[in-house]
C-alpha cells in the first residue's frame, strides 16, 4: 500500500479502499489505451503520468494498449510516435497490446451474444437508427429488425465478417433497452462494416468492433484492475459494466472503470481532430511543430520529460474539468532547465561594439561558468576580441537613471570579461546607430583578483566576439492562439483565434562553443531565455527554438490588455 504521508488523490483513495476490502495487491494492473489516429498531446501526458505513476507507486504492471479498432483513421506512424513519446516521458510498459489482438475473441463473444438473444443485426441506415434513438426526455423505439431470429442474425453476422455486404448496410447492436434513461444503453452498436486495410491485421477483417465493446473486454482479457478514463466516459460506465456482466467469470479480475477530469491547457487545443486540421491545412508545419500542444511538439520546443511530469503532478487529478494556464507548464519547464541547461552567450538583436583601446588583432580566451546550479562548477573558454556584438537594447545614447546598461560616459561589465565605458557612436545617413565605441579598463578582467576587477558597476551585459561569432537561425515562438480558450465557444471556429505572429524567425549570433551542439541540446542564452537545438539544425546552419523566457512575461502582457 502507499505511504499515508502524502495526501492521496481520489483515484488512489479508490485503490486503497479496494485493497483494504481484500483486493490482492499483486492483482493490480493498469493500462494506457491510446487510439493510433494522431500524435499524443499534453492532455494525454497527464493520463500517461497517472497510469504509469500508479504502476510505479504500487509496483504494478502497466500495459500500453492501442485501441486500433478504426482502420480508416489509424496509421503505423501514429503507433511509432506514441511509443516514442511514452518512452521519452520516462516510462516503460509491461506489455505492448492491441485491441486487434482480440478481434477473434471479441467476434466469438459477439456470436454468443446473438445465441443468447442479446445482440441482433440491424439493417437500417444510420439516419433511421438515430431517429429511433429518442431523446434524453423521450424513450426510443425498437428497430423493426430487433426480433430477427437467432439463426438469421448468426447468418447475417457471419456474412458481414466475410465481406459480403457494402459498408453501411448492416450493423450488430446489443439488445438492451430502448427506454433506458441512459441513451448509450439504447441498443448500442457493437460492430460496423469497414472495408479498410488495417495496419496490423491487413484485410482479414471486414467488420470492426466499436470502442465501447472493445474497450472493457480488452481490459478484461488483460486483467486490468482499474480502467481510468476521462470524465466524458462517465455515462459509458453503465454500458462498460453491462458488457462485462455478459461474459464475466468470477475467477478472473473484473475491471473497474473510474473517471477523472480533463485538464485543458490555455491558448491551445487538445483535440486530435483539431490538431490534425492544423497540420493538414498548413497552419503549422507538422505534428511536432514547436507551437503544438503535442508531446512531440513540446519535445522539439525544448521542454523536458521532468518538467512535463512535474506539471502533471502539480495540476493533479480532479473530478471537475478546468482550464490550466499555460504559464504553469512554462514555470515547470523553466524550473527544470534552470538546474540543467548550460549558460552560454548569444546575441539576437546585434549591434557592433568596438573597444577602441583594445589591441588590434589580439584575442583572449576567457573562463566562463557553465551553470552556477552545478554542485561542482565547470567552465568553458569563450573568445574575446576588439569587436563584439551586443544586444541593441543594451545601449541607449541617452538614458534615465533606471537604465543600468551601456550609455555614453557610464560603465558596465561585459560578462566574464572587462568593465567598459561608452564613448561615442557611429550613425548612418538616417541617424541610426550602426556602431558603438567604448574603452575598456585593462585591469578589470573578471576573476583576476585585481582591485579594478572588484569595482562595482550597476550593470552586466552579454556579448559575442565578432570574428568568432557563429550565425544561427533562431525561432521565437508566441502562443499559437490569441484566446485563452480557443475551443470554448462552439459557435466560433477555433481557427479564428490563430495567432498570426506565433512564429518569428531571426538571425542571431552565438559563441563558438555551440558549433557542435546537437538536436535537443538545451541551453540558457544568458539574459534572454532557454533555447533548444532544432532537428533542422546542421553543422552548416545552426537552428535554435526558443523554449521559454527567463521570466513569465505573459502575465504582464495579459494584465495590460
Automatic annotation (TrEMBL):
<dbReference type="InterPro" id="IPR004514">
    <property type="entry name" value="Gln-tRNA-synth"/>
</dbReference>
<comment type="subunit">
    <text>Monomer.</text>
</comment>
<comment type="similarity">
    <text>Belongs to the class-I aminoacyl-tRNA synthetase family.</text>
</comment>
<keyword id="KW-0067">ATP-binding</keyword>
<feature type="domain" description="tRNA synthetases class I (E and Q) anti-codon binding">
    <location>
        <begin position="460"/>
        <end position="534"/>
    </location>
</feature>
<feature type="binding site">
    <location>
        <begin position="35"/>
        <end position="37"/>
    </location>
    <ligand>
        <name>ATP</name>
    </ligand>
</feature>
<dbReference type="Pfam" id="PF03950">
    <property type="entry name" value="tRNA-synt_1c_C"/>
</dbReference>
<feature type="region of interest" description="Disordered">
    <location>
        <begin position="124"/>
        <end position="145"/>
    </location>
</feature>
<protein>
    <recommendedName>
        <fullName>Glutamine--tRNA ligase</fullName>
        <ecNumber>6.1.1.18</ecNumber>
    </recommendedName>
</protein>
<keyword id="KW-0963">Cytoplasm</keyword>
<feature type="domain" description="Glutamyl/glutaminyl-tRNA synthetase class Ib catalytic">
    <location>
        <begin position="27"/>
        <end position="338"/>
    </location>
</feature>
<dbReference type="InterPro" id="IPR020058">
    <property type="entry name" value="Glu/Gln-tRNA-synth_Ib_cat-dom"/>
</dbReference>
<dbReference type="InterPro" id="IPR014729">
    <property type="entry name" value="Rossmann-like_a/b/a_fold"/>
</dbReference>
<dbReference type="Pfam" id="PF00749">
    <property type="entry name" value="tRNA-synt_1c"/>
</dbReference>
<keyword id="KW-0547">Nucleotide-binding</keyword>
<dbReference type="InterPro" id="IPR020059">
    <property type="entry name" value="Glu/Gln-tRNA-synth_Ib_codon-bd"/>
</dbReference>
<dbReference type="InterPro" id="IPR020056">
    <property type="entry name" value="Rbsml_bL25/Gln-tRNA_synth_N"/>
</dbReference>
<feature type="binding site">
    <location>
        <position position="67"/>
    </location>
    <ligand>
        <name>L-glutamine</name>
    </ligand>
</feature>
<feature type="binding site">
    <location>
        <position position="211"/>
    </location>
    <ligand>
        <name>L-glutamine</name>
    </ligand>
</feature>
<dbReference type="GO" id="GO:0016874">
    <property type="term" value="F:ligase activity"/>
</dbReference>
<dbReference type="InterPro" id="IPR001412">
    <property type="entry name" value="aa-tRNA-synth_I_CS"/>
</dbReference>
<dbReference type="InterPro" id="IPR011035">
    <property type="entry name" value="Ribosomal_bL25/Gln-tRNA_synth"/>
</dbReference>
<keyword id="KW-0030">Aminoacyl-tRNA synthetase</keyword>
<dbReference type="InterPro" id="IPR000924">
    <property type="entry name" value="Glu/Gln-tRNA-synth"/>
</dbReference>
<keyword id="KW-0436">Ligase</keyword>
<dbReference type="Pfam" id="PF20974">
    <property type="entry name" value="tRNA-synt_1c_C2"/>
</dbReference>
<keyword id="KW-0648">Protein biosynthesis</keyword>
<feature type="binding site">
    <location>
        <position position="230"/>
    </location>
    <ligand>
        <name>ATP</name>
    </ligand>
</feature>
<dbReference type="InterPro" id="IPR022861">
    <property type="entry name" value="Gln_tRNA_ligase_bac"/>
</dbReference>
<feature type="compositionally biased region" description="Polar residues">
    <location>
        <begin position="134"/>
        <end position="145"/>
    </location>
</feature>
<feature type="domain" description="Glutamyl/glutaminyl-tRNA synthetase class Ib anti-codon binding">
    <location>
        <begin position="341"/>
        <end position="441"/>
    </location>
</feature>
<dbReference type="InterPro" id="IPR049437">
    <property type="entry name" value="tRNA-synt_1c_C2"/>
</dbReference>
<feature type="binding site">
    <location>
        <begin position="270"/>
        <end position="272"/>
    </location>
    <ligand>
        <name>ATP</name>
    </ligand>
</feature>
<dbReference type="InterPro" id="IPR050132">
    <property type="entry name" value="Gln/Glu-tRNA_Ligase"/>
</dbReference>
Amino acid at each position: 500500500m502507499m505511504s499515508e504521508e502524502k495526501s492521496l488523490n481520489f483515484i488512489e483513495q479508490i485503490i486503497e479502499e479496494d485493497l483494504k476490502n481484500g483486493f490482492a495487491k499483486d492483482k493490480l494492473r493498469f493500462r494506457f489505451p491510446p487510439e493510433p489516429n494522431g500524435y499524443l498531446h499534453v492532455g494525454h501526458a497527464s493520463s500517461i503520468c497517472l497510469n504509469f505513476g500508479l504502476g510505479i507507486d504500487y509496483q504494478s504492471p502497466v500495459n500500453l494498449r492501442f485501441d486500433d479498432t478504426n482502420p480508416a483513421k489509424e496509421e503505423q506512424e501514429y503507433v511509432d510516435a506514441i511509443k516514442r513519446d511514452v518512452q521519452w516521458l520516462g516510462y516503460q510498459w509491461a506489455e505492448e497490446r492491441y485491441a486487434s489482438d482480440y478481434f477473434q475473441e471479441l467476434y466469438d463473444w459477439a456470436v454468443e451474444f446473438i445465441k443468447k438473444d442479446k445482440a441482433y443485426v440491424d439493417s437500417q441506415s444510420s439516419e433511421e437508427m438515430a431517429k429511433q434513438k429518442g431523446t434524453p426526455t423521450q424513450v426510443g423505439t425498437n428497430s423493426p429488425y430487433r426480433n430477427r431470429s437467432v439463426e438469421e442474425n448468426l447468418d447475417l453476422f457471419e456474412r458481414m465478417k466475410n465481406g459480403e455486404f457494402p459498408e453501411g448496410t448492416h450493423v450488430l447492436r446489443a439488445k438492451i433497452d430502448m427506454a433506458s434513461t441512459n441513451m448509450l444503453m439504447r441498443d448500442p452498436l457493437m460492430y460496423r462494416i469497414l472495408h479498410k486495410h488495417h495496419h496490423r491485421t491487413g484485410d482479414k477483417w471486414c467488420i470492426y468492433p466499436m470502442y465501447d465493446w472493445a474497450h472493457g473486454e480488452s481490459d478484461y482479457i488483460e486483467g486490468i484492475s482499474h480502467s481510468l478514463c476521462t470524465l466524458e466516459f462517465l455515462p459509458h460506465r453503465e454500458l462498460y459494466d453491462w458488457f462485462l456482466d455478459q461474459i464475466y467469470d468470477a475467477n478472473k479480475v473484473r475491471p473497474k472503470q473510474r473517471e477523472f477530469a480533463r485538464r485543458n491547457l490555455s491558448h491551445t487545443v487538445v483535440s486530435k481532430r483539431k490538431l490534425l486540421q492544423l497540420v493538414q491545412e498548413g497552419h503549422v508545419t507538422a505534428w511536432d511543430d514547436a507551437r503544438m500542444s503535442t508531446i512531440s511538439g513540446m519535445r522539439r520546443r525544448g521542454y523536458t520529460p521532468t518538467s512535463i511530469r512535474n506539471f502533471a503532478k502539480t495540476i493533479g487529478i480532479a473530478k471537475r474539468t478546468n482550464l490550466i494556464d499555460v504559464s504553469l507548464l512554462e514555470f515547470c519547464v523553466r524550473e527544470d532547465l534552470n538546474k540543467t541547461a548550460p549558460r552560454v552567450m548569444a546575441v539576437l538583436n546585434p549591434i557592433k561594439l568596438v573597444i577602441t583601446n583594445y589591441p588590434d588583432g589580439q584575442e583572449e580566451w576567457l573562463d566562463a561558468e557553465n551553470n552556477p546550479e552545478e554542485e561542482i562548477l565547470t567552465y568553458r573558454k569563450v573568445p574575446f576580441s576588439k569587436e563584439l556584438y551586443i544586444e541593441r537594447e543594451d545601449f541607449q545614447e541617452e538614458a534615465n537613471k533606471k537604465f543600468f546598461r551601456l550609455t555614453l560616459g557610464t560603465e558596465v561589465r561585459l560578462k566574464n570579461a572587462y568593465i567598459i565605458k561608452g564613448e561615442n557612436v557611429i550613425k548612418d545617413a538616417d541617424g541610426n546607430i550602426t556602431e558603438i565605441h567604448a574603452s575598456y579598463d585593462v585591469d578589470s578582467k573578471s576573476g583576476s583578483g585585481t582591485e579594478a576587477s572588484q569595482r562595482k558597476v550597476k550593470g552586466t551585459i552579454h556579448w559575442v566576439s565578432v570574428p568568432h561569432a557563429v550565425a544561427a537561425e533562431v525561432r521565437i515562438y508566441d502562443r499559437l492562439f490569441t484566446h485563452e480558450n480557443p475551443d470554448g465557444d462552439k459557435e466560433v471556429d477555433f481557427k479564428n483565434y490563430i495567432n498570426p505572429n506565433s512564429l518569428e524567425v531571426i538571425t542571431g549570433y552565438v559563441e563558438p562553443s555551440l558549433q557542435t551542439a546537437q538536436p535537443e541540446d538545451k541551453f540558457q542564452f544568458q539574459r534572454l531565455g532557454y533555447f533548444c537545438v532544432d532537428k533542422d539544425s546542421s553543422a552548416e546552419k545552426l537552428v535554435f527554438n526558443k523554449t521559454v523566457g527567463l521570466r513569465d512575461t505573459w502575465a504582464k502582457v495579459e494584465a495590460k490588455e
